[in-house]
Amino acid sequence: MKTWVKKSIVVMVAFLTFGLITPTHEIWEAFDQNPSNRASIGPSSGTNTAEAHEISQEQTEIQQEPVDYSTLLIDAAKEQSYIKFGTKIGPKISNEFDEIIFPKMEEAIAMTLAGIDDASLASLTISERPSGNYGEKIFNISNNETGTDLIRFHVRTEKRPQEGYYYNFHYHSAEDDFMAHNNLGDIYWEKNTPPKWLS
Description:
- The structure is a single chain.
- The protein is α+β, with helices and mostly antiparallel strands.
- The chain has 2 domains: 3-64; 69-188, no CATH class.
- Helix content is 47%, strand content 20%.
- The chain has helices spanning 3-16, 25-33, 35-39, 49-64, 69-113, 118-122; strands at 124-126, 137-143, 149-160, 164-173, 182-188.
- A hairpin with a 3-residue loop joins strand 3 and strand 4 (164-173).
């Protein structure tokens, strides 16, 4: 008899008798030697066949619910962006990022993913190590199977004379071998030098 069935029966007996009767080795031996007992193993006590079928059907429906890979990537993109900003930069630029930059990021991701079938979407992943210091990388979306990047999102810190520091958000796409600088927008910091990323 399978171990999990034995454990289930122990639990069931303990539950039904409120722990007053504990199954002994003689019970297991008698159970193993009587073939009619084996055939009677079905849904757990208190669950009839119709209920067991209904539960099984619900579990199947849950498992068959399609995964929205695009939404998962977009959620991860926002998370990686805020990881890069850290606690010093994030609070100061979060409103403008959420209202101006991130919607454009979503558009760029949607354009990149358009026309990719579900099987290929399932193999896409987002990098989890934004660069620190004053590095530009926020995240890349890559194909796990081939190891190639589809799109790379960056933010560059720019000092503009007599104005101060800006964050320039942009991306590079595999469509042109990452040559073009596709602008997403700028967020003003201030005249003082901004903190390092991830700080």
